[in-house]
Task: structure prediction
Amino acid sequence: MPGEDIVRVEGLNAGYGRFHILFDIDLDVSRGEIFVIVGPNGSGKSTLLKTLFGLTKVYSGRILFEGHDITRMPPHARAKMGLAYLPQVGNVFSELSVAENLKMAGYTLDSSVLDEKIREVLEIFPFLKDKLNAKAKTLSGGQRQLLAMAMALIREPKIFMFDEPTAGLAPKAAQEVVDRILWLRRELGKTVILVEQNAKLALEIGDRAILLVSGRIAFKGKASELLSDKELGKRYLGLKG
Amino acid sequence: MAIIPSLPYTLESIAYASALGLLSMGLSLTFATTRVANFAHADFAMVGSVVMLFLIDRFYYLHHGWGVFLTGSIVGGIFGGITGLLTYLIVLKPLADKGTSSLGLMIATFGIDIILMNLLTLILDTAHGVHIPKLIGASVSSYEPILSLRGYRVFGYTIVLPIAAVLLTVIFHLFLTRTKFGIAMRATIENPDLASVLGVNVNLVYMVSWFFSGFLAGVAGALMAFAFKGVDPAVSALIIVSVFAGSIVGGLESVYWGLIGGFLVGLVEKLGMTIINSIYRQYFVLHLGAPNVSLLNYEKLLSLGLVVIVLLYAPQGLAGVDWGRLARRLGLKKPVEGGG
Amino acid sequence: MEWWIFSDAFLITLFSFITVSISLNLEAGYTGIPNFGKHLFVFVGAFAAQGVGVRIAALIYEKLQPQAAQEALAQLRSMVPGATWSSLVHAAADVDANRIVVNNYLRPFFVSHVAAEALLLVTLLLVTVGLALFFGLIASYAALRLREEYLAILLLSFAELMVLVVFYQSQSLNGGNQGLWAITFTKDPVRFALVGSGVLAVIAYFYADRLANSPMGRAMRAVRDDEVAAEVFGRDIASIRLKVILISSVLAGLAGFFFIQNAALSTSLTFNRVIWTFLPWAMIILGGMANNLGAVVGTVVFLLAKRLFEYYQVQIAHLFHLGSASIAATLLPNIFIGVVMILTLYFLPQGILPEGPSRTVNFEEILAETSSEAGEAGGEESK
Result:
């Protein structure tokens, strides 16, 4: 049912310049679900996410967002339409203070609206209140992910695309980030696309999932099915049998 | 002969260092935003110098008053800023949009350097109806107020330049930290992709940075016109060496450190060489029979030496030095507990 | 020779610039070394014929003709009180004394003693090569360690300080702001300069052409295009850069040596960044980077244009209502060159003659083949 799909990808081939990385990708993401993309190192997971945000070269195929073709749209136009992309690194301005980062997130908003929004996200992420004047580079990795999430929230996107948000985080910090992702969907009804190296963690919270192997989809279906598929799990995801 | 330089000379050195600070700050600014090493930066300053010369010449009522500094700085700064903006809009942006490499952009600024230098000489050479008979090499120093301080004659510009440098730095700092656009500018310097995704007009940021860079250079050049024995656009060849030295010592990518680097290079060139020269003359020439030459002419070699030392031992410049660690190592600061 | 705009001086300039452009092209076009201090490397050859040349020639003269040397000294003492032979030899006295020593004593002696002259010529050519290698080593020390921008800035700064400060301020090195008379060779120094610079240009062209199409040329391009890949494929980047800088420095120095044969009296300012660094850059960009024939074409085009400005300076000055003809001869061509160079970068980024395929196996092809497999697996990280 097309009306249910917030993102739809058809016959996508993409890569960087001469390096063709993604082959014939078809997928659809439903509104309000957590959609997980897993796969071994170098399978093209992050490239797929970047392609959805317009940061790679598309050779053929199309990307629809709420029924609109966004295949050739520049990233900032996609951001305006309601896509939020949170890259693994460089998702906050580390030389700017937390307050300045939040201001930058609402750069296009009126200052009265922006102030209100900042108040709102500070209620959601209270720990940021004490750090408003600290430079973002002084935050821990987990805190930085949460700041990036707060910045995205200010712009009220319809869909959050996380690129390995728990990579390099201590288990406790990773759990906090995961809790926040679940909260986004539960409390705000947002759609989430999650690219994760930690397949078990991601598949446990995901609704549906795809498995990418060498730039092609090797599995598409319920996250729980993939989690329990011993063959695929052992071969590509390092899950214990 | 005392080793410590005289008061007027010290003031002149500080003024020169302030001008270099402004120039290096502007150079670092455009490098930080657009990643272009601008070989025409000293010519932006010469635009300011030539403007000051014309102002004095055409509006001679400005003579002998402090107003000449204010008018000249503002008009010279605006002309410098427009030169910078046009450099970006007419030459660099079209080239960058076509995918020209950073080497190509450097070469282009080298071309602008040649064009501006010759154009300014041409303007001075062919200016009609000027009151100063021949503008090239014309001295403007007799058109400024001269103070008497503790029995010394002190040139007005030596007072004004440091004040201008401090004032402009404070204004620039407030702009960068207190205004939305200033914050966007710093954000763009760090991560232009993220900034543009958030809705920042990155191109506008670049335009403003080139204007501001040219403005700072224009102000420095307008006030330095009084320091030159004569305004000669070819002087830019020597100025650019010191400006680059200042920016590299600062770290090339940090605006504030660029200011400090330029100031430092200026002081080392002037005061450092005076002290070295005095020592040389008092001990080496008098007692050891070394050749009786003035080392003052070689002051620029100190800035090159400084650059070489920085590039060898701190390639990121002063901006890249871990000052906290350095202080702890020198025992100036207590070690901090491992930060989480 | 004198026909329309073609004078001996023009041809000597043309030949010298062809050599300099070709040598800059080896560095910048083929190997990607942004040498913004080329003028220093050309000046080195002039210094060999001037500051060093006068000293060596005077030493030989004093050894072989002690009598005449004493006479010369006596005559010059009337002009420069208290002059000693060594002060004249070190060229520190004054430029008139220097002219008399060079033109009235040294030149006539060497011109009439072929063996001594040959010995002197070989010595000074060796000095040129030695100085070029010395400065080339300094430049390569930086070139092996610095990023592109830093290297360009440092080379320009270094060259400017040498030419504008050290050699210009120091009276004893090369006559300072007075300048020095160069040691010139044969009865007809102009013809000597013409033949010397011409032969050098031809040698430089064929040498560069052979180099560019050898495995070394392929390695140079690999270094320029992708240092990491070059290293992966076992190229010794440091030694390639070093070799190229040394070869180019020697070529530029020799060009300066023959060029100064015709200029005779000059200061280090003759070798300024506009004429001897920026102009060669404009030439190779117009002609086509990494194309030796392109370097020659660019050189010819720009020098013809510059010469036309000079030749018709009176008419041009009249046309544009310029105060003096010398403006038309100096300032306008420089502006013209700058504008053409920027327009070339925009409209003709590959130059008139784009870089052709190497006549040996193409490195890029090997790279593309081997990395296409790696691209699939590792492309994600390659961003």
